[in-house]
Amino acid sequence: MEILWWQILLLTLYSGYQILDDIQFNMFGHPVFAGIISGLIMGDITTGLIIGGGMQLTILGVGTFGGASRIDANSGTVLAVAFSVALGMNPQQALATLAVPVASLMIQTDILARFTNTFFAHRIDTKIEQMDYKGIERNYLYGAIPWMLSRMIPVGLALAFGGSVVRRIVHYLNGDLKWLGDGLTVAGAVLPAVGFAILLHYLPLKKHYPYFILGFIITAISVTLFDGLSSVGTAVASLDKKFDMSFSALPMLAIAAIGFALAAMEYQRTSQAKVTSRSLMGDGETKSDEEGEIEDDEL
């Protein structure tokens, strides 16, 4: 199928919005939301969830500190979902061949947007000296334009004119270079594990390893148990037509709730320990402790 003009328009507008959401509101500016919205626009939310969720897991351990730029996972997700649905690409293959490379290339447009914004920053400095409050507000809002264009222009051009290029790539990957296409599909499936590894590298795992082990065991046991119940329910339903009860797999919300409960227990324990230690120590020791070295779990 071809990407229709209104789909190109909506995806381009969303690519401009998502960067503003990412740097200001931080509500829907994540790859998983980019996958859902792109999937809805393209008419295949399943593919959007697979690519968006995979990209979200891939960048779990990737962050931006200070004024540093990072890969634009949202734009990569938008293009990967659009071409995956339009050209019938394997979602894992689209994740490896489109989402990650595009996200890395978009670092350059991010830097360009930051440089362009200095023009409006200098104008704001001038307006401050002139006590022109309306001018300050206008130039502050103008600063959103470079950010939006830095995503809208590349995404719009890629969607409008890049279909033929991607189609040729898909043809070769699934034809003459099938071995490479299969390898990239496997690489796309492994990328979320890489994101987890990066995240675990920065987490204070040595200090809280019991919770990590406990969470892994609870998840493994629960998934196995619910999968077994689902299989039993399917078998019984095939034998007895009156048996209409359905068994569903363990929802991720339940696993997230277990993790939240364990995190809350740890937070309460550490908070109580700090209150107790402060009550036992003098004011001088408390002050020196507060101004001391930052613990690894506070980084």
Automatic annotation (TrEMBL):
Q: Where is the composition biased (Acidic residues)?
A: 290-299
| A Gene Ontology BP annotation from the UniProt entry | phosphoenolpyruvate-dependent sugar phosphotransferase system
The organism sits in which domain of life? Bacteria
| Cross-referenced Pfam families | EII-Sor
Residues crossing the lipid bilayer are: 28-51, 140-163, 183-202, 209-226, 246-265
List the membrane topology term(s): Multi-pass membrane protein
- On whether Cell membrane is a keyword of this UniProt record, the answer is yes
List the keywords (alphabetical): Cell membrane, Membrane, Phosphotransferase system, Sugar transport, Transmembrane, Transmembrane helix, Transport
* GO terms for cellular component: plasma membrane
Q: Where is this region: Disordered?
A: 276-299
Where does this protein chiefly localize?
Answer: membrane
Name its cellular compartments: Cell membrane
**Protein name per the record:** PTS fructose transporter subunit IIC
